[in-house]
């Protein structure tokens, strides 16, 4: 897979992160079923529960455009090793993907990379009975 368009979009989105409390800027980009890329940054709030991660913001943007099936995800942070999506983001991605092997690339500002899948990161997502 050619990750570079997703990485570039995630890096660009990260530049717009609003992280005055944690100073932990994140950019995420999703490749969607129609080939489009939706990218977003994290947006914090002084009430932590109101903060929204970059991955969830990107998925919300894609869903708002009528898209429902992410094909790949790239996440850019400044952390070493590169930070993985949080549990809330993993659950959100699992809601929208039919492919438990959804490829996820985490990368940091130094270029360190780790490729994984949603199934590896989140083997047992929540689902409603029935």
Briefly summarize what is shown:
With 130 residues, this protein is of the alpha+beta class.
- Average pLDDT reading: 96
CATH-level-2 architecture? 3-Layer(aba) Sandwich
Radius of gyration: 14 Å
**Number of structural domains:** 1
Q: Would you list the SSEs in sequence order as H and E?
A: HEEHEHEEH
Number of helices: 4
Give me the CATH superfamily: Cytidine Deaminase, domain 2
Strand adjacency order, main sheet: 2-1-3-4-5
**Helix content estimate:** 25-40%
- Could you name the CATH class? Alpha Beta
Structural class: alpha+beta
Strand content bin: 15-25%
**Large-scale geometry:** globular
* Contiguous runs where pLDDT drops below 50 for at least 5 residues: none
State the CATH topology.
Cytidine Deaminase, domain 2
Instruction: Tell me the span between the first and last alpha carbons.
Output: 35 Å
Biggest sheet: strands, sense, closure? Answer: 5 strands, mixed
What is the number of strand segments? 5
